[in-house]
Amino acid sequence: MTREKTGDRDRRRLPLHGQIAIAMALALGLGGLARATGIEAHPAIVAPIQFVGELFLRLLKMIVVPLVLTSIVVGIASLNVRAVGRIGGRTLGFYLLSTSLAVLTGLLAIRITRPGRGADLAAANAPTIEPEPLLDILLRIVPENPFASMVETFDLLSVIFVGVLVGLAISAVGPKARPLHDLMEALHAVTFRITDWVIRLTPYGVFALIALVVLDTGIGVLLSLVGYFLTVAFALAVHGLLGLPLLLHLLGRVPPRPFARAMAPALLTAFSTASSAATLPVTMESIEKRAGVERRVHSFVLPIGATVNMDGTALYQAIAAVFVAQAFGIDLTLGQQVVVFLTATLAAIGAAGVPGAGLVTMVIVFQAVGIPLEGIGLIVAVDRLLDMMRTSVNVWGDACAAAVVGRAEGAMDLSVLMDGGSSPNGPATP
Ligand code: ASP
Fold first, then answer.
1. Which of 109, 136, 199, 251 is spaced 20 to 30 A from 413 at the CA atom?
2. Would you say the CB of residue 344 lies under 6 angstroms from ligand 1?
């Protein structure tokens, strides 16, 4: 009876992704109006919007570590080592395949458009950035102190590593570890409920974040880099609307349209925050409640994806490298393009799921083929907007992986998916 009543109320309310879309449109309109009237820098306007945006980001970041840890421990504890190995293998296989496809799409797009020829590099001003060597990143996955990785450094890969180990140990120990398992399950339920509350605030957070971008960025910078910008945007669209849906359909037999609708809150949050890691709570909730993928799969696939699987970033880095090379009059040989392909894949894996990370690890690609680092100064101007777009594609790639692996493992209920996009927060959890 109560459930029915709630259902009725939910049906009358606008779906969450609709609310977010309206918030975005309002932010664009009001932000544009503020710019047009010249009040875009007034503290009375900027300060409260900044406050709301920052508050929303903090709430999201606050739940990432407990959510990832408890989901992984509880998810893995129901599996044995063999099952974890199988899910892990499938996940990495999909990630490699989709990232390669993304880089190829990017390289193909820039070969066709060639926006770098005739670009003006005079204004280039290289930021001083140093990427971390890949081996160091791998080493850091194993934390010296597991508690520090959770409470001090926001090191998701370490949290995942510890979570998988603890989950496996719980299932290996058996009845004696039952209290710990129950405690983790209770913690997970509580974190998930808090996530649910935070997600209800998404439209307000998205409004503030998008409005800030509009207030901050003029249209002028876009014009000088329009060819480059459009090439990245076009290639991202091709990968997001054709490449990934194709993989989703062929490998998982999952209908792309309803799945995209179910994941819309996560995709829009990714766009607004430009951070896969901060979006993770929304991605996890959407995939479970709106798309019907079970926790034993998504708790593993999604956090790993948010840290290592970045289709949009890899594609963007390949395009940026070739664009700057073209602008400097460097003609990349086929061998050099292969190096761009490989290093862009690695640099995207090395990028953390935070705003602007792809720009930093791009140094790896530039250095590998000998492109002047000053070129990064040129493309920095339009990076925020491209970051928002590529982060959406990054999160979309993670979600597709979770669906494909979920289907292969018999851990995805398609009926939830077909129902999921039509109610504000998906079906009620029992
Ligand atoms: N901001 C992106 C993400 O969080 C990474 C990047 O800078 O490309 O997914």
1. 199
2. no
Return the pLDDT at 117.
64
Q: What is the pLDDT of residue 184?
A: 92
Question: Would you call 411 helix, strand, or coil by DSSP?
Answer: coil
Q: In this structure, are residues 372 and 324 in contact, taking their beta carbons and an 8 Å threshold?
A: yes
Give the span between the Cα atoms of 110 and 315, in whole angstroms. Answer: 10
Cβ of 27 closer than 6 Å to ligand 1, yes or no, is: no
Q: Ligand 1 in contact with 350 (CB < 6 A)? A: no
pTM reported for the whole predicted model: 0.80
CA of 393 to the centre of ligand 1 (A): 10
| Ligand 1 neighbourhood includes 390 CB (under 6 angstroms) | yes
- The answer to whether 255 and 412 are in contact (CB under 8 A) is no
* Pair 198, 63: CB distance under 8 Å: yes
Query: What is the spatial distance between Cα 94 and Cα 102, in angstroms, rounded to a whole number?
Result: 12
Structure tokens at 51: 């406050």
Q: Is the pLDDT of residue 430 over 50?
A: no
CA-CA distance, 18 to 264, in Å (whole number)? 9
Whether residue 239 has its Cβ less than 6 Å from ligand 1: no
Ligand 1 center to residue 4 CA distance, Å?
41
β-bridge mates for residue 127, sequence order: none
Residue 375 banded pLDDT, cuts 50, 70, 90: confident
- Residue 348 alpha carbon, nearest atom of ligand 1: 8
> What is the rounded distance in angstroms from the CA atom of residue 29 to the CA atom of residue 207?
11
Distance between Cα 314 and ligand 1 center (Å): 10
**Percent composition of the chain: helix, strand, coil (DSSP 3-state, to 5):** 80, 0, 20
Per the CB < 8 A criterion, the answer to whether 231 and 319 are in contact is: yes
Identify which of 61, 276, 382, 396 to mutate to test ligand 1's pocket (most ligand atoms within 8 A of the CB).
276
Q: How far is the CA of 342 from the centre of ligand 1 (A)?
A: 18
Report which listed range, 227-231, 310-314, 346-350, 371-375, is most confident: 310-314
**70 CA → ligand 1 middle, Å:** 24
**Domains, in order of start, for the chain:** 15-418 (1.10.3860.10)
Instruction: Return the best residue to mutate from 64, 99, 317, 390 for the ligand 1 pocket (most ligand atoms within 8 A of CB).
Output: 390
pLDDT in tens, 100-117: 999 999 999 988 887 766
Assess whether the C-beta atom of 252 lies below 6 angstroms from ligand 1. Answer: no
Are 318 and 344 within 8 A, CB to CB? yes
Residue 412's DSSP bridge partners are 293
Return the CA Rg of the chain: 22
